[in-house]
Design goal:
The protein is mostly helical and 242 residues long. It is 65% helix and 5% strand. It folds into 2 domains: 3-128, no CATH class; 149-234, no CATH class.
């Protein structure tokens, strides 16, 4: 049974489906491309053999070392069978891809709707707190996906002690917050933990490697944490959420 057929809502949540989808589609596309290449090669071989067959002279006039017509006919028949088999496999993988893409589209819509419901629920909860909190109550709310500014302050004050490090820190923090929220940047990789696929920050990403080398582990961890929060709580929108 193909791996895409094993995916069921009962076995994994929406995010699990999305992770497995990415892996499965890459495998199916690779197989599809390989089949197309094989099909093209076999079809090209068949055309060459047909051309050769068309130029075959009567058997009596051919040198003895030439391939007999009977062998050419068998060769053409064999390549025809190969092409038919390849076509069948190609259709199967194409159908599998279409099915996976259809499933993924449905799941993406569901994920966006669920995400919106969560946002509405959070806003309602915060709004409801006004009924129980007094004017003297201090409420600290953290946005998931926001970079911890303190990490940049520590790194900047140590790196630029004789300069206006606060201004540099503000610019640096703002730049990396934009990077975290950029949907075109996807510094993640898939790992297999006890049979379950999980997505983690890719420490070999070029941007992250430069950041770590330039400003150290504390800043790197702050950005990595923000990326993981963003990916977990609002991957479809890529903006910080309460």
């Amino acid at each position: 049974m193909a791996s895409w057929q094993k995916l069921t809502p009962k076995d994994s949540n929406l995010w699990g489906w999305e992770l497995q989808y990415n892996v499965t589609v890459r495998q199916l596309k690779g197989k599809n491309a390989a089949l197309r290449l094989a099909f093209a090669e076999v079809y090209s071989k068949k055309k060459k053999k047909k051309k050769t067959n068309g130029n075959v002279k009567p058997f009596s006039s051919q040198p003895k070392e030439n391939v007999p017509c009977r062998d050419l006919v068998e060769l053409v028949k064999t390549t025809s069978d190969q092409i038919a088999a390849l076509k069948e496999q190609l259709e199967e993988t194409s159908e599998a891809l279409k099915d996976m893409e259809s499933r993924y589209s449905c799941l993406t819509v569901k994920q966006i709707l669920i995400n919106q419901e969560l946002q509405d629920a959070r806003k309602e909860s915060i709004s409801g707190l006004n009924d129980v909190l007094t004017s003297r109550t201090t409420l600290v709310v953290k946005k998931m996906g926001d970079i911890d500014r303190k990490a940049f302050e520590v790194a900047s004050s140590g790196k630029f002690p004789n300069k206006d490090w606060q201004e540099t820190c503000a610019k640096l923090c703002s730049l990396w917050q934009q990077n975290v929220q950029d949907p075109k940047w996807h510094p993640f990789k898939m790992i297999n933990i006890r049979g379950n696929l999980q997505e983690i920050v890719d420490e070999d990403d070029e941007k992250l490697k430069e950041l770590r080398n330039e400003y150290g582990d504390v800043v790197y961890e702050a950005v990595s944490t923000a990326l993981m929060e963003m990916n977990e709580y609002n991957a479809s929108g890529r903006y910080a959420v309460i």
